[in-house]
Write a structure and sequence with these properties.
By secondary structure, the chain is an all-beta fold.
């Protein structure tokens, strides 16, 4: 696992090799980051998020509490994923996913 400068990883976080967490990220409590994940710069991940294998998250993205992101999924730059969502497909840059699961461009 590689964690770069300025990143904060809180308690109860599980990560598996090979995972890369870029600079100035915040990973909150009880997050699971499975094998082969990449997390971009300035990204915030709220508590109880599950990132399954080979998930890529872009820069400046927010992942809300209790979100599950399934295997081999990409979330673009500048995205906002609302609380409790289940992400089953890739999400383009500058997308907002609300609690109702609808995609909206910024």
């Amino acid at each position: 696992v590689t964690i770069l400068d300025g990143t904060v990883v809180n308690r109860g976080v599980f990560t598996y090799h090979p995972t890369i967490i870029d600079t100035h990220c915040i990973i909150d409590n009880n997050v699971t980051i499975a094998h082969g994940c990449q997390i971009g710069k300035n990204t915030q991940i709220a508590p109880a998020v599950q990132l399954c294998g080979r998930v890529t998250i872009g820069d400046n993205t927010f992942i809300g509490a209790s979100v599950t992101v399934l295997n081999n999924t990409e979330i673009g730059d500048d995205c906002h994923i609302g609380i409790g969502e289940k992400i089953t497909r890739s999400v383009p840059d500058k997308t907002r996913i609300t609690v109702k699961g609808t995609f909206k461009s910024k």
